Amino acid sequence: MKSPNEITLPVLIKNFKFASNINIIANILKGYEGNTIDVTFKKRRNKRSNKQNAYYWKIIVVIFQNCILEEWGEVKTKQEVHEFLKYNCNYEEKVNEDTGEVLRVIISTTENTTSEQEVYHTRCRNLCKEFFNTDIPLPNEEVTLNFDRK
Predict the structure, then answer these.
(1) In angstroms, rounded to a whole number, what is the distance separating the alpha carbons of residues 59 and 38?
(2) CA atoms within 13 A on the CB side of 35
(3) H or E segment to which residue 117 belongs
């Protein structure tokens, strides 16, 4: 068995032992026999889904683009709207203990889990309702959008 550069394999740990994929692990170890290897342990996370990603870019971002155009008269790219949404809906605040000054640190959405992405989507929908008085439909919700270009 030829040793690949990197292998990712979901493995369940029970009683401090590997509890799944034991045969696969044994075969992988045979391929590295005589070599020193690096082993990384990382809790498995369900990353945001392709459907969530499509909903975000095709529904949430597009509606925000149209709201910004209608309300502010500004044309924004999808990437500019994405940065705007992250700044307003996906950040953490760092406080300088000496001055009390608060700094907003934007968090990337790239590594969001499915549940973290849904929280982000909810914040985006709430911002759109509060700021532009516009409802963003939920995923799989049937609606007709009509954007009049003046």
Answers:
(1) 42
(2) 13
(3) helix 114-132
147: amino acid identity, one letter: F
Taking Cα atoms as reference points, which of 115, 41, 117 lies closest to residue 86? 117
Write down the pTM of the prediction. 0.66
Summarize pLDDT for 3-32 with one digit per residue, the tens: 566 777 777 778 878 788 888 888 888 888
Check whether 150 has a pLDDT greater than 60.
Answer: no
Structure tokens at 114: 């499915």
Six-digit token string for 134: 């516009």
Structure confidence at residue 4 (pLDDT):
62
CA–CA separation, 78 and 68 (whole Å):
11
Partners of residue 95 on adjacent β-strands: 102
